[in-house]
Amino acid sequence: MIEKTPTSSTEEPRRDFMTKALAVVVGAIVGLVPIVAGAVTMFDPLIKRRRSVLGTDDDGFLKVTSASSLDSTGAPRMFPVIADLQDAWNKFPNTEIGSVYLWKTSEGEIKAFTSRCPHLGCTVNYKASEKLFGCPCHDSSFNLDGTRNNEIPPRGMDSLDVKEVDGEILVKFQKFRAGIHDRIPV
Amino acid sequence: MLDRLSNWLDHRTGYRDLMKEALDEPIPGGARWRYVWGSTLVFTFVTQVVTGFVLWASYSPSTRTAWESVYFIQHEMTLGWFVRGIHHFTAQAMIVLLVFHLVQVVIDGAYRAPREVNFWLGIVLMQIVMGLGLTGYLLPWDQKGYYATQVATEIAGSVPVVGPSIQQVAQGGTEYGHHTLTRFFSLHAGLLPALLVAFLFLHIYVFRRHAIHVKDTKGKPDAKFWPDQILKDGVACLAVLAAVMGLTLWKGAELTAPANPAEAYSAARPEWYYLFLFRFLKFEWVSQAGEATGLGEAFGAVVIPGVLMGILVLMPLIAHIRGGHAFNVAYLWLMIAGAGALTGLALYEDWYKDDQAGRDFRTAFAKAHHDGERAVELSQSPSGIPPEGAITLLRTDPLTQGPALFNTYCIECHQPASREGEWTRTVEEQTVVIPPTAPDLADPHHPEDVRFGSRDWIRSVLTDFSGHFHSLASITVENGASEERAEAAAAILDGSMASWSSDNAGTLIADANKADFDALVEFLYAQSGRKDALPLDDDQVTRGRAIFDSGELTEGTIESCTGCHAMHAQGDEEPLSEDMYPILTNYGGHDWLTRFIADPEAHYAGNGEGNNAMPGFADQLSPEQLDLLVRWLTGDYYEPQSE
Fold first, then answer.
1. Angstroms from B222 CA to nearest CA on chain A
2. A-contacting residues in B 331-360 (Cβ below 8 Å)
3. pTM here?
4. In chain A, which end has fewer C-beta atoms inside a 10 angstrom radius, N or C?
5. Disruptive mutation site among A3, A29, A36, A41 for chain B (greatest number of B CBs within 10 Å)
6. What residues make up the domain containing A41?
């Protein structure tokens, strides 16, 4: 199977070593250039941060609905969040970027929660009969004030900053890292 | 520790034997440069797999996202241009290296028994690589790839009986669309690379079975693949990589304008390594032979190349005949020389030959290049790429569409001064040069440089009216104009503005009045609202306004403009003058020009009393087209901020 072939290595071990070293260096260069360049391009999302939501006000608030639409029931309702979206090469005007729960408490305070479950990012439902938020994925459950109703999620629902300007409800729509105890914006 | 680990691994896998088998391949007569081609091909293929995967991860195959995602790779992503450039030029390097490899194999006689099968496997690999080049060329969905690939699929469609079916399957329908891209992409990134890997494996397996073919050891000592031949192979790969990187840095992979089925691309050419076939199909006798044999285009594009390739396939058998090897070598060189000559001819005709076709190609190429740059500029503009895709950016861009509309509707009368004589018509079988019959407004070949409404234009109208409008003298009945138009033209040249100009030019251009003349021009220029006009409250503009109204200059007076023209100066509450024609309100601006082009007579001389020699275009141009044309002529389009 293994043939014995005469080599120059016994006669000129130094030259042979140089050849090997050089071959390794040259091989590394030709192999690494495409791989490293390709890796840099693959890691582009880590290198360049691209703002994706456009049309917020200076503090990052987006118009979600009119204040009057919160007057009626006092129960949380889900509202779509619409904004101009820069998605890689495309600019999508007025497109859906997420959803929020909004309602006015009996004290007149406006509450806003993102609908993303802090457990692992599914969209949370509101169960009116139980007055609870529940996640359809892993059964995370939350009270009306956003606190945990069971130990599945690592933290309560993520509330969002909300303000009322000229009869419009504006929400600072943010995404937070899921699955950890602390609330860290993405 | 490391020893024990490697012993364990070897016991379980036998990797040392494999390594030994791979690396200790004996090379009788020692390592040589002529053996490097196969290795460079493996290297280029691996490079294509690596860069191709990265491109794949950012590419989106559909007619509204392909160009856009490639634009994003090329212009937005970190080193995207580099990865794409490497992929683009390595693809071309593979073709060159394939030819080198083939030549080396044939002249060394390495295709002879017992290596026939491996030669055929190599030819299969060559077809796969050419297929990869062909399918990859379309993927950016730019004008260049779109129109070049159309030719390829039409060739497939020209094959008798099964051709149309093959074409439709390849295209995913009778026309190019989303499915053309998804299909080409699945071939390019899926089936063809998989086949290439499979055949490459067989190729190398059979190669190792018969060992390297050595023509002549020349008495030199033997060597092993590792490290002697590997070093030579590595250096050759390094040279290939250097060339590819050099081309990437120097030229870069081009991205022309987004594919547009409605916009002719007169510079359509296949990738350079298909140029020989492209040029071959241009010979009239090829088409005639196709006609005579009933094979049509398939004769020149499929049958002839198929026969030539068939002879290549038969080489190992031909070699059994006496003199067969010499024939094979001669045949290969002849093919290469023929392809080279045709390629050279095609390049010469396109780039150097001074005839109409050559000039047209170069003009079209320059325009395509310009459109490509413009599409990128617009994609990077604040408005960005809309969901309908980048194709709409050029369609709604005045700088792109304005010159095209001008070329269609305006240029025969408004000939650019530098290109007079280019337009002809046939009268009684004689070619007659059409004289310009209206002033030079702009040259679509230099779209950023519009003369109409510029400060120089205004100066010229004021001080040299007859000279400025001299081409109107060619609007005569003998030249085919109606009597009304001929009269109107004569009236303009003989009219009150002509005499105003000759009476007052001297005063305007007097040295003492230089600042006043500039002010008057600036005032008129500012009426257009163009981007580079001085603000309306600038001293120069207000001074010009006073002169326009009173006619009083530092030295002497001119007849007041408000004596004849209606003018409601921009920013004024009250008009300076009313109900007189031609109206100068917003002169050279969007509203003025839009109304002027739509109906010159109504705008220029009031309803029904028109005396303008220009026809109205309200019926010919849609409101959108008119708007694009006007916005181009008035400089109202996106320009990137220079840093």
1. 7
2. none
3. 0.88
4. N
5. A41
6. 13-46
Rounded distance between C-alpha atoms, residue B275 and residue B345, angstroms = 9
CB nearest to B68's CB, from A35, A48, A90: A90
For each of the domains in chain B, give its residue range(s) and CATH number, in order of start: 2-268 (1.20.810.10), 270-352 (no CATH), 453-633 (no CATH)
* Mutation choice for A interface testing from B42, B44, B47 by most A CBs within 10 A: B47
Is the same domain home to A22 and A60? no
The CA distance from B412 to B400, in Å, is 19
The helix (run of H) or strand (run of E) holding residue B224 is strand B223-224
Residue B138, min C-alpha distance to chain A (Å): 20
Q: List the one residue out of B123, B122, B148 whose CA is nearest residue B135.
A: B148
B54, B72, B238 ranked by CB distance to A89: nearest: B72
**B226 chain-A contacts, CB cut-off 8 A:** 20, 23
Query: Does residue A132 share a domain with residue A40?
Result: no
Question: What are φ and ψ of residue B440, in 5° steps?
Answer: -70, 115
Q: One digit per residue, pLDDT tens: chain A, 186 residues?
A: 344 444 444 556 777 888 889 999 999 999 999 999 999 999 999 998 876 888 888 888 999 999 888 876 678 999 999 999 999 999 999 999 999 999 988 888 899 999 999 999 999 999 989 999 999 999 999 999 899 999 999 999 999 999 999 999 999 999 999 999 999 998
Of A7, A22, A89, the CB nearest to B385: A89
Amino acid identity for residue B587 in this structure: Y
Alpha carbons B373 and B377: distance in angstroms, whole number: 6
Residue A121 lies in a domain: yes
The token pair at A186 is: 């993405």
**In chain B, positions 25-64, which contact chain A (CB-CB < 8 Å)?**
26, 43, 46-47, 50-51, 53-54, 57-58
Q: How far apart are the first and last CA of chain A?
A: 59
**Which among A19, A41, A42 has CB closest to B227?**
A19
Give the ipTM. Answer: 0.88
Residues contacting A148, CB < 8 A, separation 6+? A140, A141, A142, A155, A156
**Helix B116-138 and helix B192-210: axis angle, to 10°?**
160
